[in-house]
Recover the amino acids of this structure.
């Protein structure tokens, strides 16, 4: 008997007898006649054929993109922002019935939370308090997703893109600040030079 036939027979035997296998990073959530029984795994376990239905849940961390979207700051500047979301299932039972698509639900929640948090900050604060903004979004997501059996591990803002007019104004502001610092340094240098010359003349008169 060929190995392929043996493999097919083994799969058929497992399906008929109710043997199931869950990997170390998986859990099998069992429903018996539509009623939740509990989670099984990892390893080999048995379910009742036809009567039981198993839903596999992956417990590994999922990394996903949060699409770019418009956010309005407290000082009414429209920004385009996107990010990266790191999440994992911590309760497979709740994740199996708490929400239809847990990953999609958390992604949508991350977008709405990001808009809400940006609305509390000014434009300058969005750039200066990036780490705090990430932490606030993670906290808000975890508070809302507790009943879904999902935990947000980390959120990272990738890009913050202001409008072109704001970018030009920021560039002019940076150039003005640099010019201001240069003039201050130059004036300080001239002042110190005059003080040194006066001190030299004073010493010369004394001598």
């Amino acid at each position: 008997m060929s190995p392929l036939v043996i493999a097919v027979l083994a799969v058929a035997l497992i399906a008929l007898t109710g043997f199931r296998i869950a990997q170390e990073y998986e859990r099998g959530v069992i429903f018996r006649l539509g009623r939740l029984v509990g989670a099984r795994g990892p390893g080999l376990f048995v379910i009742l054929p036809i009567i039981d239905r198993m839903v596999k849940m992956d417990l590994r961390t999922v990394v996903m993109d949060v699409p770019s979207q418009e956010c309005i700051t407290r000082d009414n500047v429209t920004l385009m922002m996107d990010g990266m979301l790191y999440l994992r299932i911590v309760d497979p039972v709740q994740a199996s019935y708490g929400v239809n698509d847990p990953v999609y639900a958390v992604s949508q929640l991350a977008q709405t939370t990001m808009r809400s948090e940006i609305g509390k900050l000014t434009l300058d604060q969005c750039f200066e308090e990036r780490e705090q903004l990430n932490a606030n979004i993670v906290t808000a997501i975890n508070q809302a997703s507790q009943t879904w059996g999902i935990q947000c591990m980390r959120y990272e803002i990738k890009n913050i893109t202001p409008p072109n007019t704001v970018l030009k104004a920021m560039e002019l502001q940076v150039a003005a600040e640099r010019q201001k610092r240069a003039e201050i340094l130059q004036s300080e240098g001239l002042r110190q030079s005059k003080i040194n010359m006066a001190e030299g003349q004073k010493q010369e008169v004394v001598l």
About this structure: Residues 113 and 137 are 6 Å apart (CA to CA). The mean pLDDT is 78.
